[in-house]
Amino acid sequence: MKTTAETTGTVLSGARLATMRKGGTAYGLVDNGALAVGGDGRIAWCGPAEELPTDFSAWPSRDLGGRLVTPGLIDCHTHIVHGGNRAREFEMRLEGASYEEIARAGGGIVSTVTATRAASEDELVASALPRLDTLIAEGVTTLEVKSGYGLTVADEIKMLAAARRLGRERPIRIVTTYLGAHAVPADYKGRQGAFIDEVVLPGLDAAHAAGLVDAVDGFCEGIAFSTEEMARVFDRATALGLPVKLHAEQLSDLGGAALAARYAALSADHLEYLSQTGIDAMAKAGTVAVLLPGAFYTLRETQLPPVAALRRAGVPIALATDCNPGTSPLTSLLLTLNMAATLFRMTPEEALAGVTREAARALGLAADLGTLEAGRIADLAVWNIDEPAELSYRIGFNPLHERIFGIPS
Ligand code: DI6
Ligand code: FE
Questions:
Q1: In this structure, are residues 7 and 58 in contact, taking their beta carbons and an 8 Å threshold?
Q2: DSSP-derived secondary structure for 96-114
Q3: Residue-wise pLDDT tens digits, 326-348
Q4: Which of 30, 190, 314, 397 is deepest in the core (most CB within 10 A)?
Q5: Contact 312, 280 (CB under 8 A)
Q6: Do 108 and 141 meet the contact criterion of CB atoms below 8 Å apart?
């Protein structure tokens, strides 16, 4: 993209750029780099400082003192809007109950549904903000938020409206996902088909008509929905022109990832029990694998997601917090990087790509976000570190110096 000096903007100089562009140096690193941000909030130019085109020399410039600059971080899978918490269930699991036992006994997701239904939209926003602020403080500039704890048409819409409002309360890009097929509420127990007909599909139509849906997701699992049931939801999503994604192969292998791939899904998420057939289907469809080490850790899962096989097949791997009250009460994307490296043996470079370039792709936003290059939106994180690997290496330490959302001051 050619931008000329007619456009005013800002030049950020004295930057070590981890551009996260593929195919060049590790992390796409540019030492002694400069980055010109146009008045439209997009990167006009990015590269070695000595090559900065004279077009941009008239722009005001700011020296970043040699700091590392990465794309703003992207948390591409969260359930950050929800009522209540599940600290009591945490205690029960420590006393020996399994996640599935608790879910079957009416606890688990269903207890969060009760708390979410009881909360107003204002209350949902207010309770999500402290969690959101924690992510923002670590350089997160784009956040995906799922519904799925309302499970009535009105309550799903209330959750999505609360999610959209987070983007007006704070300087952050919010992407919403409709997750009506998350759990079967008590009044539909044993009548899953009726739940899909009477709630999931009409809820999707209504939320979409209200402009509240960017993508459609589901929980494909023994304790939730079958592949046949998810196919019905995906058919409706496709008819509405909405992209799909799926919670797949988290607790068992139902072939969810292959189903998602058949619908050209943006992503299949969790994937601990993913088979080679699922991997091949994802590779063919270009579906991103979103791995969620916070849920793996919280559930004390021992089955590792097939990272090496995904790599071999060339499936892009993204990472996210899965921030939710049951299986991943996690609001740190930096800790997620550390867990991905230590638990999943991903390289620090893969981990950082997983919350930038590949996370953008998992949201269908790869043309706008996730790398530092001309034309992309200038969401940036500036860090007080020298080596990008430090982002994965440290535990419980936040080296963010500055977060730039669109237009630098
Ligand atoms: N998988 C998960 O890990 C979360 N949802 C899902 O489909 C857990 C949701 C919860 O337990 O509240
Ligand atoms: Fe999830």
A1: no
A2: T--HHHHHHTT-THHHHHH
A3: 999 999 999 999 999 999 999 99
A4: 30
A5: no
A6: no
21-51 pLDDT, tens per residue? 998 999 999 999 999 999 999 999 999 999 9
Q: Which of 234, 344, 218 is nearest to 269 (CA)?
A: 218
Alpha-carbon gap, residue 399 to 395, rounded angstroms: 11
Kind plus residue range of the DSSP H or E element containing 205 = helix 201-209
- Cβ atoms of 299 and 326 within 8 Å: the answer is no
Starting from the edge strand earliest in sequence, which strands make up the sheet with 267-270, in order? 245-248, 267-270, 288-291, 317-319
Question: Taking CA 92 as the corner, what is the angle to CA 87 and CA 93, rounded to the nearest 5 degrees?
Answer: 95
Q: Which of 114, 177, 247, when mutated, tests ligand 1's pocket best, judged by the most ligand atoms within 8 Å of its CB?
A: 247
The ligand minimizing its distance to the Cα of 298 is 1
> Is the CB of 362 within 6 Å of ligand 1?
no
In angstroms, rounded to a whole number, what is the distance separating the alpha carbons of residues 180 and 196? 8
| Sheet with 140-146, side-by-side order of all strands | 73-75, 140-146, 173-181, 215-218
